[in-house]
Design goal:
The protein is α/β, with parallel strands linked by helices. The relative contact order is 0.15.
Length: about 325
């Protein structure tokens, strides 16, 4: 067994901005695991919010002793980007060695095309209005919020896309003093869901807040160990493989989350189709799918996911799985 790590940078077709900053490129790590002449691939996006860098994640991957399998990996590497790339590469390797698609190996349903959200990144109300106009025919739009000035932003977006289903992502930027008014306005504008309004670990306010709009945990939910603390605060969980540490834990989080009564969203970091492909297995069981990362790239990987508008199709085996 041999591991190869590559750094890849994908230029974005426009700057992507959230409450924590802006970026013009997606910087990812590609991991290849070779065994008996067969290569499995996985991709991860190290995320500064969780203390990760390309260098630190690479060092974690290099520190894993060979050989190992998926179950061993869960015990030796914690949740996060490093384990995600390794775990997804192992799934791909197993599929190729067994000549069996990943969905069969995982015991899930045959993969079907899905409707993904399309994200409107943070900006002025006018800029977000113009970005929304260009995508007003999409059935599901995800709107980035930033705290101050959010109500004019949502008003502008609803005006630009009167028929789209809207969900909003605050990325931990809301304030308790304004939250009741914000929720009331979002309800008036027919917003279907609010994602991570308060900082993870500082979301106690939600324990006593009766929201008329479902609230989804993102930064507060990483893996199965996160779930107990979310009870009574959140209605949904956003499963991202870079947080769970791969498909193996993501499938466990899906099952346990549903068992505990949480609705499911599947999300992504900004990466290539290789990062989205494993998430398609979990997305088959999600109420909200947000796997639009490749739509922001100037150029995706070869054999990337096919999109028809907001419909995303299952990966070809030449890409993954």
């Amino acid at each position: 067994m041999k591991i190869t790590i590559k750094e890849n940078s994908f230029k974005l077709n426009q700057p992507f901005t959230i409450s924590r900053g802006s970026r013009s490129h997606a910087h990812v790590l590609t991991v290849e695991i070779e065994d008996e002449g067969i290569i499995g691939r996985g991709e991860c996006v190290p995320y500064k919010r969780y203390g990760e860098t390309l260098e630190s994640v690479s060092e974690t991957i290099k520190g894993v002793n060979l050989p190992f399998d998926r179950e061993t990996l869960q015990d030796v590497v914690g949740s996060g980007a490093a384990r995600n790339a390794l775990d997804c590469a192992l799934w791909d390797l197993e599929a190729k060695k067994s000549n069996m698609p990943v969905w069969q190996l995982a015991g899930v349903s045959r993969l079907q095309p899905l409707i993904t959200a399309f994200t409107i990144s943070l900006g002025t109300p006018e800029a977000m209005y113009q970005a929304t106009l260009a995508n007003k025919e999409r059935p599901l739009l995800k709107v980035k919020l930033g705290g101050k000035g959010d109500i004019p932003r949502i008003e502008a977006i609803r005006k630009a896309a009167p028929n789209s289903r809207l969900i909003v992502d605050a990325n931990e930027s809301c304030h308790e003093d304004d939250f009741t008014d914000l929720i009331a306005k979002l309800l008036e504008l027919d917003v279907a869901m609010v994602e991570q309004p308060f900082p993870a670990g500082q979301d106690h306010y939600l324990k006593d807040f009766k929201s008329p709009i479902p609230i989804c945990a993102d930064e507060s939910c990483h893996d199965c160990k996160s779930l107990d603390d979310l009870v009574g605060k959140y209605d949904m969980i956003n499963i991202k493989l870079d947080k769970t540490g791969g498909l193996t834990e993501a499938l466990k989080l899906l099952a346990k989350g549903k068992e505990m009564g949480f609705d499911i969203m599947v999300g992504c970091m900004i990466g290539s189709s290789l990062a989205m492909a494993p998430a398609m297995l979990v997305a088959q069981y999600a109420s909200i799918v947000d796997l639009d990362g490749p739509l922001f790239l100037v150029e995706d990987r070869k054999h990337g996911l096919a999109f028809e508008g907001s419909k995303v199709f299952p990966p070809e085996t030449m890409l993954w799985g």
